Amino acid sequence: LEKLDDIAIQPASGDAAAIATTLRALYGADVTLLGARGQQTLDLFQRVSALQQAAAAPALGAEYPRHAFGDGLREIARLIRARVGLEVACIDLGGWDTHFFQGTTDGSHATLARTLAQGLAAFDTDLQDERPRWTLLVMTEFGRRVYENASLGTDHGRGFALTAIGDRVRGGRLTGPWPLQAMDESNPLGPGGIEIACDYRRVFAEVLGRSMGMDAAGLARIFPGADLAPVGLF
Fold first, then answer.
1. Whether residue 148 sits in one domain with residue 65
2. Helix (H) or strand (E) holding 135
3. Which of 81, 144, 172, 208 counts the most CB atoms within 10 A of its CB?
4. Which range marks the domain in which residue 48 is found?
5. In this model, does residue 24 exceed pLDDT 80?
């Protein structure tokens, strides 16, 4: 399943509504656990059908990029607008391991950055009326060096930038020290290595605590042993 519209009774032939009616009659005559589960499944199809028909188109003229990333963001926005109880969603945009021919203002990295920016802008526009209800975090699986290798790309690093977007986020600023030592020849991390200045778990913990009301005990269970001092995101 890739999108909400994929959840449906999809018969090889015939009318899906008629088949659902027949199945409900069959399951209704079955007093066993199987009959109850069958009825629950059909009820789920009805609820999903209502969601599919409501708020399917992006709001305010939002235009998501024609990419799996854009499609996924659009589906998440649909679920948020539908108020189905969604608390956390995760979506990936791969291809950032640019060891070769990374490019500058064009090329593979610029194309990915453009797709990311267009998707985030569309998501923000689409959910303008819901802004107090969501916080969006953008992070990478691993950092990269700010040093071009011999293959016109960049190699794996340690530190990376994490972006937070939302109505409650105190935005328009950079939090943390600027990595001036990255290009220093004495850098212990090697050429272009960026030191980790802030544990990403602190950011996630602050969002879970402020946006979802999770207490310190709950945060400690998710991030055992971590320093979860707030970074001042909100």
1. yes
2. strand 135-138
3. 144
4. 1-53
5. yes
